[in-house]
Amino acid sequence: HPFDSDQDLQLSYSVLAKVQQDGIIPCGYDLLEEEWPEDGYPVVESVKVARKQVDITLLFEIWFRRAALWVQGLHSMSTILY
Q1: Cα separation, 61 vs 44, whole angstroms
Q2: Is residue 58 a contact partner of residue 72, using CB atoms and an 8 Å limit?
Q3: Residue 81 confidence (pLDDT)
Q4: What pTM, to 2 d.p., does this model score?
């Protein structure tokens, strides 16, 4: 883990649990409704695979919850580390 101590690691778990419990979605990660394009949540993302672009379908019902959890963890960890 990236923390200097087990105490910091435990703090990160506590912070993440509180962020999830309170339903906090940090801004700046394109997960807040006001950060979406005019037509709503982006359902397709284009990623480069080898030399070509591939469109990946991002169904809201599946990916939003996962993306939100990832962002909550990343933001919480970054806040503690920096």
Answers
A1: 13
A2: no
A3: 84
A4: 0.79
DSSP string, 6-70: HHHHHHHHHHHHHHHHHT---TTSS-SGGGS-TT-S--EEEEEETTEEEEEE--HHHHHHHHHHH
Short-list 56, 70, 77, CA closest to 14: 77
Per-domain residue ranges of the chain: 6-81
Copy the structure tokens of residue 56: 């990946």
Pull the structure tokens for residue 62.
């599946």
Q: State how far the Cα of 52 lies from the Cα of 38, in Å rounded to an integer.
A: 27
Is the CA virtual torsion 21, 26, 31, 33 positive or negative? positive
pLDDT per position as a tens digit, 18-45:
999 999 999 999 999 999 999 999 899 9
